[in-house]
Amino acid sequence: MRSTALVTGASSGLGAEFAVRLAARGHDLVLVARSEDRLTALAERLAAKYGARAHVLPQDLAEPDAARRVADRLAARGLSVDLLVNNAGFGTCGRFEEIDADRDHDQLMVNVVALVGLTHALLPGMLERGTGAVVNVASTAAFQPAPYFAVYGAAKAFVLDFGLALRQEYRRRGIRVLTLCPGPVDTPFFDVIGTRDAAVNGSMTTPEPVVRAALRALDRDRGYVAPGLGNALSAHLLPRRPRTLVAALAERVTRKVLSPSATAARPKEYAA
Ligand SMILES: NC(=O)c1ccc[n+]([C@@H]2O[C@H](COP(=O)([O-])OP(=O)(O)OC[C@H]3O[C@@H](n4cnc5c(N)ncnc54)[C@H](OP(=O)(O)O)[C@@H]3O)[C@@H](O)[C@H]2O)c1
User: Fold this and answer.
1) What is the pLDDT of residues 249-259, one digit of tens each?
2) What is the pLDDT of residue 245?
3) Known catalytic residues?
4) Measured distance CA(207)–CA(10) in Å, rounded
5) Selection from 194, 207, 204 nearest residue 87 by Cα
6) Could you give the angle at the alpha carbon of 68 between the alpha carbons of 160 and 100, nearest 5°?
7) Mean pLDDT for the stretch of residues 53-76
8) 264 pLDDT exceeds 70?
């Protein structure tokens, strides 16, 4: 029987790449995001190219009961999920007092609350079947405080610690849990956050090598992976330094997001 992978944020960027790579590996897919048209186009492509059954589940993950709604629709279709990829997410940047509070609230709902909720909803089924896996997408922002990305960085630190903790809880019970911590990847993420100056650390890569590295790490049951040598080095070294020093050093790098050109490039609704 083909196993089923559910990918959130499958309508673009890393999520779409996860869906393609997983279909190529023989998984059926459940595709979750708000953009139903893009999910449907992807589902048709996965069916035509890989013979994958791809179910489209449009859902705004910022809604308070988003995880339950997804779980209810999975149950109604008789679908069980063997691999959960909690990838959906977006960021905000700039001086904290200038960032729209509702936007930060939605960010936490999508990047944290929905991720935990979907894990709660789907992990018990994996335990019952004695096998399964969860991939949570964090960021290199998870490894240090991120001034001017304070909420985004803290949310991603949550995702990393949550994933590492679950991995220890479930590693002897047949469930693998991987946390993916990418550096800058060329996706619409930067259109949504409003500036390419948000790519503060490391050089930009494409989704393909990042997702390949994630699936390789999942196969090897690694706890986390930060693809790219520079990202891997900083992931290894930064948590070992005094935290206030790391925050001060990080601020020297992230302050570039405050440049006038970055502010001008920000979409109106997110601009200060
Ligand atoms: N790109 C980078 O440099 C980078 C680096 C490190 C980590 N990451 C992380 O990688 C993940 C994927 O980002 P990406 O780079 O692939 O960006 P992206 O192309 O903008 O994709 C974000 C995905 O999340 C979905 N999403 C956003 N808000 C949503 C909501 N309210 N409800 C449901 N789905 C929602 C979007 O779908 P809809 O708009 O259709 O809803 C989209 O499919 C994110 O968690 C991001 O934080 C990205």
Assistant:
1) 888 888 988 87
2) 83
3) 152
4) 12
5) 207
6) 60
7) 98
8) no
- The domain segmentation of the chain, as residue ranges, is 4-270
Report the nearest atom of ligand 1 relative to the CA of 91.
47
Q: Please state the atom number of ligand 1 nearest to the C-alpha of residue 11.
A: 43
Classify domain 4-270 by CATH architecture.
3-Layer(aba) Sandwich (3.40)
| Separation of CA 128 and ligand 1 centre (Å) | 30
Residues near ligand 1 (Cβ within 6 A): 9, 11-15, 33-35, 60-62, 87-91, 110, 137, 139, 182, 184-185, 187-189, 192
Q: How far does the centroid of ligand 1 lie from the alpha carbon of residue 232, in Å? A: 22
Distance (Å, rounded) from C-alpha 103 to C-alpha 272? 12
Over 70: is that where the pLDDT of 62 sits? Answer: yes
Does residue 42 contact residue 55 with C-beta atoms inside 8 Å? no
What does the pLDDT look like over 158-216, one tens digit per residue?
A: 999 999 999 999 999 999 999 999 999 999 999 999 888 888 876 899 999 999 999 99
